[in-house]
Amino acid sequence: MRPGQGDIELAGLCKSYDGVSNVVDGVNLKIPDGAYCCFLGPSGCGKTTILRMIAGHEDPTAGEIVIGGENVVGLAPVERRTAMMFQSYALFPHLSVRDNIAFALRVRGQSKAERYKTVDLMMEKVRLTELADRLPSNLSGGQQQRVALARAAITEPRVLLLDEPLSALDEQLRVQMRQELRRMQRDLGITFVHVTHTQLEAIALADIVVVMEKGRIKQSGAARDVYAHPRDRYVAEFLGGQNVLSGKVEKVGEDHLVISQPNRTGILVGVRPNASIEVGDRIDLAVRRDDIELMRAGAGGLEDGATALPSRVVAIEYQGSFVKVMLDTIPDEEFVAYIPERTFFRDPFNIGDILLATWSAGRARVLA
Amino acid sequence: MLRRNLSAWLYVAPLMLVLVPFFLLPILVVLAASFFETDGFGGLLPTFTLANYVDVLTSAQTFQLYMATLKFTVLTWLFTLIIGFLVAYFLVFHVRNQLLAIGLFLVCTVPFWTSNIIRMISWIPLLGKEGLVNSALLGTGIIREPIEVLLYSGLAVVIAYVHQLTIFMVVPIFNSMARIDKRVIEAALDAGASRLDVMRYIVIPMSKSGIALGSIFVVSIVMGDFFVVKVMSGGSSASVVSAFYENVGVLQYPIAAASAVLLTLILIGVISLILRAVDIRREITQ
Amino acid sequence: MTVALERFDVSMTKARRGVLAARSGRRPWTFYALASVFTFYVAALYGPMICIYILSFQDIRGGLVFPMKGHSLHWFVDLFTQVRTGDVKGSFDRSIKLAVLVTVITLVFSFMAGLAFRRRFFGDTFVFYLMIGSLVAPGLVLGIGVGLLFQWIGINASWYTSALGAQLSWTLPFGVLVMFAVMSRFDSVWEEAARDLGASRWQTIRFVVIPVLAPGLVAVALFGFTLSYDEFARTLQTAGSLNTLPLEIWSMTLNVTSPSLYALGTVTTVVSFVIIGACIGAIVLINKRRGIRATSH
Description:
Chain A is α+β, with helices and mostly antiparallel strands. Chain A has helices at residues 47-55, 77-80, 97-107, 112-125, 141-153, 171-188, 199-205, 223-228, 233-239, 341-346; strands at residues 8-15, 24-31, 36-40, 62-67, 70-71, 82-85, 159-163, 191-196, 208-213, 216-221, 242-252, 257-261, 264-269, 282-288, 293-296, 307-318, 322-327, 335-340, 354-359, 365-367. Chain A has two domains: 8-233, Rossmann fold; 241-367, CATH 2.40.50.100. Chain B has a single domain (13-284), classed as MetI-like fold (Orthogonal Bundle), CATH 1.10.3720.10. Chain B is built from 15 helices and two strands. The longest helix of chain B has 35 residues, at 60-94. Residues 1-8 and 293-297 of chain C have low confidence and may be disordered. Chain C has twelve helices and no strands. The relative contact order of chain C is 0.12. Chain C is globular, with a radius of gyration of 26 Å. In chain C, helix 4 (88-116) packs antiparallel against helix 9, helix 7 (162-183) packs across helix 9 and helix 9 (201-230) runs antiparallel to helix 12. Chains in contact: A-C, B-C. Chains B and C meet through helix 1, helix 3, helix 4, helix 5 and helix 6 of B and helix 1, helix 2, helix 4, helix 5 and helix 6 of C.
């Protein structure tokens, strides 16, 4: 597969259907060639619209889309050398697997012998050779997806666009097919743009994760960056894995802050404050759920600079390798601790127990 | 937007090419003819006169014809509705095997594929004085003399209509009923509804569009018919259109045209009433 | 309060019992009632026609009604060989030719119109009601109108011009209505996928739309053929001097008093059956190959 030329740049991209509100509101993004990029966000955030605009199935109201250095706005999908894999796969129901994959070649006028040669190679690559003569209605979900992928890839596109490709599959299959996708992407060496609303899927697959809300990009970057260092409350909450506390700053120290909340004051948080924070400001703090340690009151062992908040256990969920403990640390908001399974069962808690939710200095981050 | 409209009209153009000269224009021609005078020899004098309408509207014969036609229409509609509804209900809700239901449905539609004239006259050997029905009844001693009213009467006309047109009720009602999500019915039964309740509150309301569509077909065909009533009544009854046919036969075009226009207006009135109850366009295009 | 609840309890059990019985195989009494209505209906549908078929084998001495005085093929022979004022063979010929013409035109025109109606367009309500109007207008009135129109323009009415148009005004609305039903099951994402893969508009129609809609298109052709082959009222005034088969039957009804009329009925039914059977067979075959089960309508 030919590498190069698959880098994408979105500049000031906007889309409005009714002239009043923007479904996509000024999106700027650079995706390097050969990267696996995931757009992540809830329904209605505009991610699918962006995908369809890159594909050429929708026209932007404003802004530019540049692929491989050329502005593709106004070009038909086939002229952009992009290919799309639809959410429902959209396999032609009247054609066999082989003919489905060969479709793109057929409309380019290739003879049957030529087409089938190329298609056979592709089918081997995705391991569909025994299913070549089957009709889509006789295929399982995972098989249909492979056909859809092969059908799109046969045109040798420089960008492959996937619209929630794994949503239609059940849990186990989803995890399996994730690896297929990754493998395909590395084999083909082209840019993949993948739209999803599942956080774990995005961080598992992507080189670049783009978190969106209401038509705007909230944060984009490597998966680890977005997960471990969310920039604002929305990203922190959407990616999961973080607890977000808000509070009013009472005191600003060199390496700590003291904040207060409606129901308690004098909370010490060991974090290096940035210059702009002053007393009286309202700030958001994020702490990773797996950074929370739960201790019984009076057990001691608290480090210097650690934060300790008295909390009551509200619910406990066993999740296999860790236990999810939900606490009432912050009134009216979720506060969850992920405790490694073995640690939990050394001294298991019960619902209603009063504990201290603690985290070491330096674990909390100030959010924008 | 403009491009889309232009391309849509391009696709619809062939249809319009047929509908305009073979529906719109003829209707206008008939409308025009209703205002003309006849020259007595089958020609038309293009003057504007309302005399034809006055004739038609004041004639006692018109009133009688419309009564007769209306009577047939209402009776036919009633019977086709009841039988059609029951047949469709049976096929959709009581036949378990989907394939069998479709097979039986096709069995019902098969006669539709044969000539309707043949189907109509096929009642003659059955209902006549020497027909099968009378022979059977005589033979088993239920009656002493053949029932004459079975054939060449208003009863025969209605039988022929119902025979021919029930299918027009069955098909749309079957279609509407088949679209009802069975789970809605299960939910109703779970909540304690009896089967009669289910029929009243779920099945009938949700089949309304099928009933409306079927009614439109039945009403328009009966009101527009002329040969069934002629043959099956032996000439004793007439309908509006059969009178029209006769007028045309004696080249009385203007009067015939006025009568046709009147009938069309009444037909439009009836159909609009039916359409008020149900949004047919949405039903059909979904 | 408790009494009311108890009563509620009882009626619940009754309905559930009925349902459970229905599900487990024991049928409620309404099943038998409805089944008898259904059987009666089918018997009434087919009975008279079967009488005609039987009677067409009437012996040479027999009359128009039962009892059969023996059986023979006499009336069939009579139908095709007897010199008479009518022209059975010619009208049969003409009916078939006209029906084929109408079928092809209906198919193409309905398909195109069906494509147009997928989205709202300017004037679409006008076209829609024009179609419905053409459907419900009394055939005879339209026939007269067409006849008059042709007279005024100066073209002679004939079976392949005016009658063709008159029949199309009847078959096209049916065809388009069937297309509506068929189109609603067509997922437009297939067209988008085809476009994404590089197909032009025409290629999409040729390679995706038509093949997927094939069973529906056969249904439209079926309607076109049947409606044309049996069309009477509109053709009556527009066929000109040469009859189609229904017109021929009509004049026989008025003039002829022998079972050869029944023989004609049998023959024309057989022809209808063969053609329609072939169409339905085609639809079933196509659907089977695609693995489409006869599930939701």
